[in-house]
Amino acid sequence: MNAEKVFFILDELEKIYHNETVPPELGHDDPLDGLILTVLSQNTNDKNRDAAFTKLKTLYPSWPDVIKAGRAKLEDAVRSAGLAHTKAGRIINILNIIHEDFGEYSLEALSKKSSGIVREYLRALPGVGSKTVACVMLFDMKMPAFPVDTHVTRISKRVGVAPEKTSPEEISRFYESIVPISRCLGGHVNIIAHGRAVCHARNPKCGSCVLASKCDFNENF
After folding, report:
1. Do the Cβ atoms of 211 and 12 come closer than 8 Å?
2. Which residues are catalytic?
3. In the 3-class helix/strand/coil scheme, how is 7-33 assigned residue by residue?
4. In this predicted model, what pLDDT tens digit does every residue of 126-183 receive, in sequence order?
5. Average pLDDT over residues 96-112
6. How much is the pLDDT for 220?
């Protein structure tokens, strides 16, 4: 993989989107909120995720309230996020495991442990994959991580950071191995912003892209 191109992407996109200079506030008071939000985000868009999370927290302000309400009512609350039956089951299981492990519905205690322990613990939770782990670590625990979604994957492969068959997990590990923690949050958000505004999956705006000079994909146009 190509480290030089990673920093080319980060540097050029920061000139436009400035999320490293002014990092967005994406975290929560308790990392557990961020974890549940990210579970709801799986296989849906941000609008549906946020609507489901807002309704969930409005109806059941505390996590013990969610447990008391039960799975059926939780499904109704998060239906806008899609896959409500599956996601409700995962949320209930996650809450029960965390309560059993820490004696409370909170991940504050976990956030005080090393990043390696945190990553291993979160990854073992039901329905929690590498991207979810990285989001919680970076946004809610301020730990070194670099979430790789479809936008980061697409741009990384097009510019030539990684070969076409490289998995998102491999790309994430590569970014984490070379990008300073101070650049992870803003850099991640900048790439997503560029994917949404310019480097679309279909009909990308290569003619107005600041990455075009070093983009392998741009050679096809």
Report:
1. yes
2. 131
3. HHHHHHHHHHHCCCCCCCCCCCCCHHH
4. 999 999 999 999 999 999 999 999 999 999 999 999 999 999 999 999 999 999 999 9
5. 97
6. 54
d(CA 176, CA 161): 13
Residue 221 · residue 206 · CB < 8 Å? yes
Place of tokens 């790309």: 171
Question: For 10-30, what is each residue's pLDDT tens digit?
Answer: 999 999 999 999 999 999 999
Number of H helices, E strands in the chain: 13, 0
What's the CA gap between 17 and 15, in Å, rounded? 6
Tokens standing for residue 144 = 């070194």
Of 169, 165, 129, give the one whose Cα is nearest residue 148.
Answer: 169
CA max distance for the chain: 57
Identify which of 31, 54, 60 has the alpha carbon closest to the alpha carbon of residue 125. Answer: 31
